[in-house]
Amino acid sequence: MASVFVTRALPFEALDRLRAAHDVDEWRQDMPPSPGDLLARTREVEGLLTLITDRVDAELLDGAPALKAIANMGVGTDNIDVEAAKERGIPVGNTPGVLTDATADLAFALLLALARRIVPGAEKVRAGRWETWEPAADLGADLAGATLGIVGWGRIGQATARRAEGFGMDVVYSSRSAGVPLPELLERADFVSLHTPLTRQTRHLIDAGALKRMKQTALLVNTARGGVVDQDALRSALHAGEIAGAALDVTDPEPLPADHPLLDAPNLLVVPHVGSATVRTRAKMAAMAVDNLLAALDGGPMPHQVA
Ligand code: DGY
Q1: pLDDT per residue over 181-195, tens digit each?
Q2: Pocket lined around ligand 1, Cβ cut-off 6 Å
Q3: Which of 41, 53, 138, 248 is 20 to 30 A away from residue 33, measured at CA?
């Protein structure tokens, strides 16, 4: 039996398999452990099941000499210093595939919400400002015939493209190794949807220059990572009308404080990182993380190992 720390209460059946096999310490508070708490609870464990809210850096790894495996409940692993773990021979697992459809659905939900002005419309009704059917008010953008630019051509980007085809959109994409150059995509697209992991290369990929290239009527959707967009530049672009709107599932930082300057930008919709938040998807993510941890603690390779 190995000792394991699970960094949040995970109300999923898969956890029973972990508890049956190992000595499991679970963080039972609603808020994530602070870096100090994480370090203290990880100091003696062999297995760590983390969430994307937990920062696992070299300092934490050095403070946990017995650590043999880290399973992240998420496909993104930018919360973990994967290189530092690799140098110490600690495998890191993630949960690819199972959240593809849920995240692509959310990207599309945001795209539709922006295009058809769903949130301002709902606010108008609740505020008692819906006075009549107006021929030229509340007008949005058509999807059919519009061009969707997908930045990042992994599983989620491709799943978003499949949805777009069903709506009669033309799709262009840009990735490190294929598709059209990013500047061309930004100039052509009526909608831009971001699906790239956060790396040194993609931090602030969408900066002031990128936003200037976009059409003034274009809408931006980000379900990838907040750091991919330079939020100060986005705020300025929205205020200046350089683009028509943006919908973000992810921000930098997360959570975005209610008084954050970005939130005063016009035509901005922000939701609280819910791309994978469906009942089935979260249960599958927990099961995959548990499978990764069980395999590594058993001395084998993780089914889904990033390093
Ligand atoms: C992930 O798994 O990386 C997602 O962002 C969580 O929803």
Answers
A1: 999 999 999 999 999
A2: 52, 74-76, 99, 275-276
A3: 248
